Structures are given as C-alpha cells and as structure tokens.
C-alpha cells in the first residue's frame, strides 16, 4: 500500500514538472497551431563557390558548389554525370565522380563500367549549401 502511494506521488510530481517544462518550449513552427498546414520556408540564396567548398573533415563527401534545382536524378537519368563522369569531367572542368574508383564498385567490390547503383543518387551525400542561419544553435567545428 505504501509503495503504491509513493509511486503515485512520484508520478504526479513528474507530470507537474513535465507540464511546466513543456509550456516553456517553443517549436520550430513558432506559435502556429499543430492543426494548421505549415508555411513554406523562405527561399534561401544558394552558396556558389568556384573551386568548391571546404570539407568539414577529410573523408566528408564534397558539397555541391552550384545550383542543382534543374538537375534530374531518377532511374533513367542522372544529369550530374553529364559533367562529372570519367568521359566528360576534363572537358567540363569539373571534378570526376569517384576519382578513386569508389563510385564504380558494386556491393561485392566488383568494378562496373557505369556508376554503381549504390552511388547513383548523388544528392544523398553531395548536397548544395544555402546562406542561412542554422535552425538551432550549432557549435560544430570541422577538422581543419
């Protein structure tokens, strides 16, 4: 009996403090009610940098230093390879995709003639950057 009363008392105190803490929390939606559709984010200016962007650490995939909104990557087309393939990168003055061969190895380590399926969707790793303040405080420092 005593044990159940203590457990119930702890539960009530926990709920009171949790409710107080939750009332001070502001969501990324601001004061917009959860039932309302979210507002479209404001357009941000793309970071475009000749020669590429600095990597956060040695093995990080390079960020895309140009716009990609008109690029198309689907099961039939990968327009990134118009500039970044082994055949075209010199003419286009672009970095070669997987220069070390990593993008041309299948999951069994066998070299393929075309970009391997697991590396085909470039923007899973290689992302464009925007000039915008972070949504939350961030103190990350990359390895220089």
Give the helices and strands, then pairings.
Blueprint: H1 2-23, H2 81-84, H3 89-92
Account of the 3D structure:
There is one protein chain. The protein has helices at residues 2-23, 81-84, 89-92. With 144 residues, it is mostly helical. It starts with a helix and ends in a 52-residue tail after the last helix.
Number of helices: 3
CATH superfamily of the domain at 45-132: Flavocytochrome C3, Chain A
> What's the N-to-C terminus distance?
62 Å
Number of strands: 0
SSE sequence, one letter per element: HHH
Brief descriptors of the model:
3 helices; Flavocytochrome C3, Chain A, domain 2; 144 residues; 0% strand; single chain
Q: Short summary of the structure?
A:
The chain is mainly alpha-helical and 144 residues long. The chain contains 3 helices and no strands.
């Amino acid at each position: 009996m005593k044990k159940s009363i203590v457990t119930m008392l702890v539960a009530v105190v926990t709920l009171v403090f949790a409710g107080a803490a939750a009332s001070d929390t502001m969501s990324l939606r601001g004061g917009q009610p959860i039932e309302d559709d979210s507002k479209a984010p404001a357009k941000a200016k793309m970071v475009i940098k000749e020669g590429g962007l600095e990597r956060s650490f040695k093995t990080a995939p390079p960020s895309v230093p140009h716009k990609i909104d008109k690029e198309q990557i689907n099961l039939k087309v990968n327009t990134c390879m118009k500039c970044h393939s082994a055949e075209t990168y010199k003419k286009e003055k672009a970095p070669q995709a997987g220069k070390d061969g990593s993008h041309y190895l299948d999951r069994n380590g066998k070299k393929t003639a075309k970009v391997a399926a697991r590396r085909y969707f470039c923007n899973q790793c290689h992302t464009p950057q925007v000039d915008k303040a972070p949504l939350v405080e961030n103190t990350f420092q990359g390895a220089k």
